[in-house]
Amino acid sequence: MANVVVIDAPPVPDTRRVSAAVAAAGVSSFALLYAPQPVLPQLAAAFRLDPGSASLAIGVATGSLAVAVLPLAWLAGLVGRRRVILWSVVLSAAIGLLLPLAPSFPVLLVMRAVQGVAIAGFAGVAAAYLADVVGTVRLAGAVGAMIAGNSVGGMLGRLGAGFAAGPMGWHGALLTVAGVSGLCALYAARTLPQAGDPMAEHTAEGVAGQKDAGKRLGAGLVAPFAVGALAMGAFVALYNAAGFRLTAPPLSLTPAAASLVFLSYAMGTASSAAAGRVAGRLGRSKALVAALLVTVAGSVLTLSTSLPLLAAGFAVLTAGFFAAHAIANAWVTAEAAPHARGRAAGVYTLCYYLGSGAGGTVGSIVYGHAGWTWLIALTSVWLLLAIVAVLVRRRSSTRMSAPDPVTETCHR
Q1: What is the pLDDT confidence band of residue 338, given thresholds at 50, 70 and 90?
Q2: Which of 48, 135, 193, 410 is the most exposed place for a label (fewest CB within 10 A)?
Q3: Is this structure's pTM higher than 0.85?
């Protein structure tokens, strides 16, 4: 009988522990990214700014994140994804603690730009890190926990800053969020296990695949890229201006009460989870158009001066936006060639955050000069342009009699 050589397999990490660590990093990163949003009126008053200028506190961070996400994803392949994630969460939390000390608004913007670059280290690397650590079989659950952490972080950062702004001012609000984010970052730093070989994607086969990936990112992905940029721009523009609208007459809410609008993110968490099932029944294009129309309908509801109707409008538009984001993201993953998926996802993230930075700033300028009604008109045009991009792509696909990749994926 031949001798059997047993090779010890590497230990399989506890998926729940890994997921909790990455979720904590997501809470830290996205709480810091959006913490200034509910205190934009206070920043405007403190530095004598109009709404458009104040919104740069969000725009420069999301813009620098967008620019840095692809280079940092490449760097992580060289030095290790865990190392990039750890530097990301620690550095972004440290900058958050220093933000309240900014002596002027330009200095604050520079610090926010650096913080956005730091956060890009997590945003551009986390999903690939999870694939390295837990493998493809358990990846869906781990990524779900990461997205939940991102969503919860964005909501808690906004709520925490909004409630702290009343008694503590914008300085105390940002400091409070940074303190909680720092604790989450420390937990992630102590818990994240080592990933696999960081050089794996730089083998000859991997490099060849990456070169082939660039050739395969064609016109078929223009529509989801457009949805990511235009829908995110509209979404951030509305939430940037929400604090100004809710704290001004005739509503005149306190900052804490106004920040409750961010509870609408719970609707987004539910709708993004359901989006895949809807796309499986209706098809990718129809489901995406429906989600974008829901976003438009919700934004129109916010024209009301009735607080219940306005709150309902934010809940509806948030549900529609997150569903559209989930479907567009799935479109990119399904249609890109296997070797191109990483790069396609990176380009989608780039478009998403460029839309956030540019759209949020332009929308805030329009609100400051023309008011909420014109802001709704502008963002509705952006959303309708996204719908046109989807319909044009659908018509082109129908002419070529191509199957719907996302629909096929959902039925498998």
Answers
A1: low
A2: 48
A3: no
- C-alpha neighbours within 13 Å on the C-beta side of residue 365: 10
Residue with tokens 């940002």: 174
Q: What is the Cα–Cα distance from 33 to 65, expressed in whole angstroms?
A: 10
The answer to whether 279 and 407 are in contact (CB under 8 A) is yes
Q: For residue 197, with 0-12 CB atoms within 10 Å meaning exposed, 13-18 middle and 19 or more buried, which class applies?
A: exposed
Separation of alpha carbons 230 and 27, rounded Å:
25
* CA distance linking residue 329 with residue 144, whole number of Å: 14
pLDDT digits (tens, 9 = 90+) for 117-153: 999 988 878 777 876 777 655 655 565 566 667 777 8
Q: How many Cα atoms sit within 13 Å of 203 on the Cβ side? A: 6
Per-residue pLDDT for 1 more than 60? Answer: no
39, two tokens: 């205190």
